[in-house]
């Protein structure tokens, strides 16, 4: 359920990313995913597991995935396809490695410990979200009245 929600909730993640920024959306996604995975180790019913792992973790994954793709599209102009390809290859790498790691964790720690360890791994996305910043282009656009257009932080905007 979590992978399905990761892609289905893209519009919601886009709205939140546009309103609050991609770094906030990625940090929120990491926090939700870590909470969903950590709370999954305490469940006693499969129905609650659908909520914790399926919905909460899926929502968090959606926020992280979409904010990462947005930041790549905004940060790269010339080699956008290469940057997207490199970033997306990480998904394939994770798809290969995480089942192997998960089965190893299951043998040693059981399913509850595996959820806690995966929660810890997912929480590292919070730090990644903290460093998502766009460098504004340094080009100046002069309006017809001779003044430059600036945003609230004082950066020069491009029309």
TrEMBL record:
It comes from Pinctada imbricata (Atlantic pearl-oyster). Pfam families: MFS_1. Keywords: Membrane, Transmembrane, Transmembrane helix. The keyword Transmembrane helix applies. GO terms for cellular component: membrane. It is a multi-pass membrane protein. It is found in: Membrane. Residues 1-159 form the Major facilitator superfamily (MFS) profile domain. Signal peptide: none annotated. PANTHER family: MAJOR FACILITATOR SUPERFAMILY (MFS) PROFILE DOMAIN-CONTAINING PROTEIN (PTHR11360:SF251), MONOCARBOXYLATE TRANSPORTER (PTHR11360). This is Major facilitator superfamily (MFS) profile domain-containing protein. GO terms for molecular function: transmembrane transporter activity. The chain crosses the membrane at residues 20-39, 45-65, 86-109, 115-134.
